[in-house]
Amino acid sequence: MTMTPTTLWGNVSDQQVTCIACGETLSREEAREYDKYGDRWNREGKEFESLCKPCHRGCCQQNRDGLEQTLLAANAGRTDRETFLERFCELVANDNDHD
Ligand SMILES: [Zn+2]
To answer: Which domain of life is it from (predicted)?
Structure first.
């Protein structure tokens, strides 16, 4: 068996991911990885969250601590995606009320 880069990394171009912030479905190539552990090079046993480009840009411009708090408050990784997205959207909407 020959290990080419393709067999090593898998063919990701067909895979679809969901943006954790807005729920948009996009191809994995288009998505930006969001690693809540802040160490994207240690990939073993990890499942990366994905963000679409506009949300990724928004997160990078926001206070990252605030985003992390919002993700935790929304039970990121500890609840099913639908519930998480619902809560996340609520929390973000509440945040915007304060501004
Ligand atoms: Zn998004």
So the answer is: Archaea
Kindly give the residue spans of alpha helices, DSSP state H, lying in the chain: 5-9, 53-61, 64-73, 81-98
Predicted TM-score (pTM) of this structure: 0.41
CA end-to-end span of the chain, whole Å?
58
Please determine, for residue 17, whether its predicted confidence score (pLDDT) is greater than 70.
yes
Stretch 14-43: mean pLDDT: 78
What's the pLDDT at 25? 92
Q: How far is the CA of 8 from the centre of ligand 1 (A)?
A: 28
Q: How far is the CA of 87 from the centre of ligand 1 (A)?
A: 15
Domain ranges (residues) in the chain: 15-98
- Ligand 1: centre distance to CA 2 (Å): 37
